[in-house]
UniProtKB/TrEMBL annotation:
Coiled coil: none annotated. It comes from Adineta ricciae. This is Tubulin-tyrosine ligase. InterPro entries: TTL, TTL/TTLL_fam. GO terms for cellular component: P-body.
Length: 388
């Protein structure tokens, strides 16, 4: 792994297993028993698919190949639309914000994109005409970008047009293709949750939950109870006229210029003050149920999500809690940025990796689990072979 924070933790956890793993930096090996824990681009999926058919080789890798139905925001929104058409009573209707998809290659085509997303267009028009008691806000997200890139909160079509026009004009002067917004075609627009859970002990700063979800083989899914609460830098203000990004955006990477310390921005959910045990337990049960429902639907959608019997993957799922303690799924990320946890809570990531090694990797290679006294653990929420 290229991130030293993550790489050092993985190495130290594997080295705990009494020489069961021989660690090297090569992305190829002729051995019959190999664990590949690499960046996605470094994995040889042709070899991995061949190894899955070879009973004499045990190759285990840290990523599935096809999982865009989970990770790309537009693909996931389409999956939810399809799933709800078949299962209208699914909990995803209540726990996934209203979402619209915009296919937009240039600001000149925004009218056409909104004609396709006509329900969104009508709400934006109502916001202008003041036919609603209070304008309904939406948040724009690029389908394939992460780290809070290009997040934008708006109420009207005019605001959206201004955003895209400014961004495209800036990109005309930017030769960096990697950061060029004109390369992004798919966008999602979600109804913005205006009543987030706020805790006075933390100055009523908005926060979201980063939950680590582990999928293995074909297919079991676990939720890790070492959950992070990621806070905004400033107290939440639901004021249309004085929008401040640092009040609304809770991603750690967006807090670079924050005057607050790491310990104020990243906390462990189960130790948050201002929440009693019953509320915490209820929130965790909602999270597990939502994750189970997502994979219940995805496991049969092989064009957009294909588990592999010789692979596992760790995802970072983001959730928001509202003032009524209802949980909303926001998005999933592969190769989550573990270093956002910081140094003071690095034990959460170490124990995550230890759980993965104990419960998933060692059994795959026929080794018994070693006796680890871990405070945090993985909770099985979905097993394709049986009902949980």
């Amino acid at each position: 792994m290229t991130c030293s924070y993550t790489n050092d933790l993985i190495r130290s956890v594997l080295e705990e297993e009494n020489d069961l793993f021989r660690i090297n930096n090569s992305s190829t090996s002729n051995d019959d028993n190999v664990l590949y824990w690499l960046e996605y681009e470094e994995l040889d999926f042709d070899m991995i698919y061949r190894a899955a058919k070879d009973s004499n080789r045990k190759i285990f890798v840290n990523s599935y190949c096809i999982r865009k139905g989970l990770l790309r925001k537009a693909n996931f929104a389409l999956f939810v639309q399809k799933y709800l058409s078949k299962k209208p009573d699914s909990i995803l209707r209540r726990h996934y914000p209203e979402t619209h998809i915009l296919d937009l290659s240039h600001p000149d085509y925004l009218d056409e994109a909104l004609n396709e997303a006509y329900e969104l267009r009508d709400v934006l028009q109502a916001n202008v005409e003041e036919t609603t008691d209070k304008p309904i806000p939406f948040i724009l997200k690029a389908s394939i970008l992460d780290k809070a890139s290009e997040l934008f909160i708006f109420h009207t079509q005019a605001e959206l047009e201004d955003f895209f026009t400014t961004k495209f004009d800036d990109d005309d002067e930017d030769e960096d293709e990697e950061n060029n917004i004109s390369m992004v075609r798919e966008w999602v627009v979600q109804r913005y949750i205006t009543n987030p859970k706020l805790l006075s002990v933390y100055q009523n700063r908005k926060f979201h939950l980063r939950v680590y979800v582990v999928a293995e083989k074909n297919l079991r899914v676990y939720v890790y109870d070492g959950i992070l609460a990621l806070f905004a830098s400033l107290s939440y203000q639901n004021d249309q006229q004085s929008f401040n990004r640092l009040c609304h955006i809770t991603n750690t990477c967006a807090q670079i210029d924050s005057p607050l310390d790491e310990e104020d921005l990243v906390k462990e959910f189960f130790t948050l003050e201002g929440l009693d045990d019953e509320i915490r337990s209820n929130i965790f049960e909602q999270i597990k149920t939502i994750v189970k429902e997502i994979f219940t639907g995805l496991h049969s959608e092989t064009p957009i999500f294909q588990p592999l019997k010789n692979a596992f993957e760790i995802y970072g799922f983001d959730f928001l809690i509202d003032e009524n303690n209802q949980v909303y799924f926001l998005e999933a990320n592969a190769y989550p940025d573990f270093k956002q946890t910081g140094n003071s809570l690095s034990i959460l990531i170490r124990e995550l990796f230890q759980n993965v090694v104990q419960q998933i990797i060692l059994p795959y290679f026929g080794h018994e689990q070693t006796n680890k006294d871990l405070q945090r653990r993985l909770h099985l929420v979905y097993d394709k072979q049986r009902t949980i």
